[in-house]
Structures are given as C-alpha cells and as structure tokens.
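Good day; I would like, with your permission, to put a structural problem before you. A protein sequence and the structure tokens that stand for its backbone fold form the material at issue. Thank you for your consideration; the sequence and its tokens are set out here:
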Amino acid sequence: MNYQAICEKACAIAREAGAFIAAQREGFSFDKVEFKGTHDMVSYVDKEAERIVVKGLSALLPEAGFVTEEGTVTQASGQRYRWIIDPLDGTTNFIHGVAPYCVSLALTDGDEPVVGVVYEVVKGECFYAWEGSAAYLDGRPICVAATNELRHGLYAVGLSHASQDTVAQLLKNIDYFLRNTNGVRRIGSAAADLAYVAAGRFDGFYQKNLSPWDVAAGALIVERAGGRVTDFSGGTNYVFGGEIIAASPTIYDEFKRVVLS
C-alpha cells in the first residue's frame, strides 16, 4: 500500500471539503442548525462536507470502510482498512464564525492510523503524515516543540460537556497552568489542538470524552512529528478509548502528572 500517494490525494479531498465549508460560512445563519443534544450541534454543512469526503475517499480506496461522525455512509464491519472521518471538527466554532475548524481524515489498518490529514479551513493549512514519514504542514516538515521545562510551555485543553467532577478536575488543571506556565488555551477543535502540538505551537494537549474521529488523524501527525501520544494511563488506547494526552516528549511526564493530579 502506497500510503504517501494515498495521503497526498486525501489532502486534496480535505481541501475540496474545506473549500465547500468556507463558502457556506458566508451568509450562514443559526436557523440552519440542528441539535443532536443540548450541546451537540450539526448543520447541512457537516453532512454535505462528509458526503464530499466519502465520495472522494471511496474512489481513492474502494476496499476501505468508514467510521463517520454524521453517519452519511453505512459500511459493514470487518474491513482491514477504514477511514475515520470528521468532516467539520469544531462545528460550534463554525456556527459562530470563530476559528479554528477542520476537516479530519485518518486511514487505519486495523486500529492503527497509517494516514492522517487535518485541514484547518480558516487559515487554509494542511497538516499531514503517513506511516513511516515525517509530519508536514503544506509541504514543510514540522516537529514538536523542544521545550524542556513545563513552565516554559503553552498548553491546550479540551472541554467536553461531561460530568461535574470532570469539569472540576479540568478547572483545577487550568488554574495550575495559568499560574505556572506560559498559559493555557481552549480553542474548540481537538483536531486543530493536535495539529498545533505537532507544529510546535502548543507543547501539550489533553482531553477526555472524545470520539475516534476527533483524534485519529491528529494523533498520527503528532507521533510522526516526534511527539508522544497516549491515553491517560500511558497506554496506546487513545483513538478508541475516549481520552488522549499528546505532548513534546521532553515535558510529557511532567505534563501527564499535572493532568492526572
């Protein structure tokens, strides 16, 4: 399997979907929003972007199945290769006209990501990697930050609408980062958070209560950029396990201790 060729074509598909998303943002109004849950919004833009992506990826690799957020395609289980897709990661940002929001595409072999593409629509930046490659941003190699002390870093956190005890722990961690580091950000797109860790913009990121389409592409890009990615126990179940820690390896241990303290 030529993962480089697949990745390059997946980037073009992500850009196509991104162009559609960007065009629809002009004149978008809140009356086009549907609520899947109290804090879980979707619009025709998410669904149509997913159709664009599925159509392109189906032609690219017909034997692959799909795991999609919006459920516009149904595939039988059992395929060796699967595309894990979030056609618009950061829907709330998109709806309110706030950056960033992304198209996130990952190809897995079994449960292992082997191609990852994150296209940030507002800035038009495409982050990508494939098995055995470096990580790239629009053709330029990228790597995680070389920060060697936690206090010198800038960190990203994800806030899911979860139980009160989870929120309480998150606020405790935010307080620590505000007092003891260069700062903390919550930008509203896990795919962008991970891409920014890979590019050295953030030194670390963590979040609970995630879905595979939120992290599969970004996690691979971080790893290929030299970063360390685990679940909260330090294991490898971060794509399907609902929790992720990603950081520069030089501060990973200290970052993880703060996150779990």
